[in-house]
């Protein structure tokens, strides 16, 4: 990340209350640097699609502002919108038009001059080339989703939003998509995706934001998030089984397996002092020996569940 250049996306104090009075977003602040991949995680109804819709100009914020590369999305709507590619969550594509003309037209909508080589590359990357003359309405659900991605990439966006791109898609599309995401990242495109799949965020994102009940609970570099909030567990295979945890070890967070052969110690890696040294000393003093030791770090999934529980 470059601290000198200005963020590609800036969201300031953004709130959204729908007409019925429901507040879907609460004071969202967010800055994203060029070339980052951000995963927004959150349960259903958290406000992820609402946030993306506002940034893309589909929904209106009740308060706050958004700028893309320094341009305000309201004042400079056409300019900012042309920098954004959006792959929506819902399939809404149905027409008599062909794949080729739909994707080419989409490029034109954003004021870009025709570029058949670019359109061809996108269609090939998305395995849509064979279908280029097919009518949209004859495509399968998976192909329609590929088409939505092709449309979003048609005008060479600087920022790409993927709203739950892999919910319910087949493995081959997922693979194609992650390959494209990597290529785009290498080309300097900023990618913001929402997902339910924590493994996905864990695999591809540079930073992870967690949204719950309309609030951005936190946004953090993935590796930092995991080490800051992650619990570590150390499991010791004991030389001699224990019938119970000795009183001298009661201050540590310990769990003894039913057969008494394994002792599991849990600690937070983010603490000033993990206590692991004290634990090992106390273990020695209690004359407990172990033959093997395994550490397990908590996954993003566990971190996520803990955070959402804490904040609700
Ligand atoms: N047009 C709308 N009118 C009223 N409420 C809405 C509208 N769109 C979404 N909501 C509500 O706003 C909340 C956030 O929705 P959404 O942004 O779609 O969440 P997510 O994408 O995280 O699942 C939900 O409670 C949803 O029911
Ligand atoms: Mg959504």
Structure description:
The protein has 312 residues and is an alpha/beta fold. It folds into 2 domains: 9-226, 3-Layer(aba) Sandwich (Rossmann fold); 230-311, Alpha-Beta Plaits (2-Layer Sandwich), CATH 3.30.70. The chain is 33% helix and 28% strand. A 6-stranded mixed beta sheet has the order 6-7-8-3-9-10, with helices on both faces. A 4-stranded antiparallel beta sheet has the order 2-1-4-5, covered by helices on one side. A 4-stranded antiparallel beta sheet has the order 12-13-11-14. Helix 3 packs parallel to helix 5 (141-153). The longest helix is centred in the middle third of the chain and has 16 residues, at 171-186. The protein is elongated and about 75 Å long. The model has no long low-confidence stretch (mean pLDDT 88). It binds adenosine-5'-diphosphate and magnesium ion.
